[in-house]
Amino acid sequence: MATVLQTGLQHHHTLASLAPQRRAPGGYRIDLRKDDMPTLSGMSLSLLTLNPRGIREPHWHPNAVELGYCLQGTAVMTIFSPGNNHDTFTINPGDIAFVPMGALHHIANTGDTEFKMLLCFDNDNPEEQEVSSGVSAMPDHVMSQTFHIDDDFFTHIRHNDRAIFASLAKEPIISPQPTMVNRYRMGLEASNPRVQTPGGTVKMSNGFYLPTLENLALYTLILHRHGVREPHWHPNAHELNYLISGRARITLVMPGGPTETFDMKAGDASFLPRGYLHYIENTGHDDAHFAIFFNHVFPSDIGFSGGLSAFPDQVLASLFGVTPDYFKKLPKIQEDVLVAGGG
């Protein structure tokens, strides 16, 4: 039976169709929030672009942690966290960076091309506060007393009720000497695949590989031509994915039987709620490359390959109206395949 593609979808969004919600000389940002996709729950996504010499000003999120994945370009990032901890590190394509809730952080493009980074939050409407508007809101005498400096120092700083968001440095940005231990950074794409089959590969960052993570994890999935991420669900986590390159198709089965089937192209996002059955299929000629975020540091997984094999043939036969002998042809798989097909 031919697959019927759905219209009026609830769980798929063409992120590139959104106009940037924030724009400044240093860059712009496209946000996917609950207002844009009402099915979002406990997660949201942003695509940040910084121009050469662009600086995402120091800021913090009062109600969310942040997990970023670098799509292109090079940048330097500093995180100032409780306990007077400074972490400064470089970001390259395929790297991830985690920012704890409330930690002050910035990103500066150190390259001569655009820098792009996916940012996932563990809140469907994350808040943010920025240094530029924060300093402007404080009385000059309070700031001068804090820094033991003359009052007129802060008087001459431009006051602005609105945050700068992304400024532009007058000269190329030179990366400072990074700290020796980068607790919040991981070279995800430089790591070894944790799953590798003819159908594709999976690389993982979770609480085991990056212990500082809280509430979020990120896997990258590459499906080769004809590759399939087997039908499965995540008992403890929502999934929010972004297709970096290629083409793919997803079917999502909701409780009670309704389904959505939709095609994804590069730049699209989809939200797959906790416990909902789904599969992912490469429908193009080239690899399909996904960044897949979960709202749990140790996302769990149950697939049909191991799941169906766990039950006796008599149980399966009763469901489908055949004799138990029919299911003797079905391989008994002790561990989920995860990534199938290919070739």
Key features of this structure:
Jelly Rolls, 343 residues, mainly beta, seven-stranded antiparallel sheet, 2 domains, 26 strands
Low-confidence stretches: none
Helical residue percent? under 10%
| Oligomer kind | single chain
- Apparent shape: elongated
Strand content: 35-45%
- Characterize the biggest β-sheet: 7 strands, antiparallel
Helical element count? Answer: 5
Protein structure class: mainly beta
Q: How many structural domains in the coordinates?
A: 2
The strand count comes to 26
| Name of the CATH class of the largest domain | Mainly Beta
CATH-defined topology of the largest domain: Jelly Rolls
What does the average pLDDT come to? 93
CATH architecture of the largest domain: Sandwich
Radius of gyration: 23 Å
Going across the biggest sheet, name each strand in turn: 1-22-19-24-17-16-15
Overview of the molecule:
The protein has 343 residues and is mainly beta. It has 2 domains: 14-185, Jelly Rolls (Sandwich), CATH 2.60.120; 191-301, Jelly Rolls (Sandwich). The protein has helices at residues 131-137, 140-147, 152-155, 304-309, 313-320, and strands spanning 12-14, 22-24, 27-32, 44-50, 54-60, 66-72, 75-81, 85-91, 95-99, 104-109, 115-121, 129-130, 166-168, 185-187, 195-197, 200-205, 217-223, 227-233, 239-245, 247-253, 259-265, 268-272, 277-282, 288-294, 302-303, 339-341. Strands 1-22-19-24-17-16-15 form a 7-stranded antiparallel beta sheet, with no helix packed on it. Strands 2-3-4-11-6-9-14 form a 7-stranded antiparallel beta sheet, with no helix packed on it. Strands 5, 7, 8, 10, 12 and 13 form a 6-stranded antiparallel beta sheet that branches. The protein is elongated, with a radius of gyration of 23 Å.
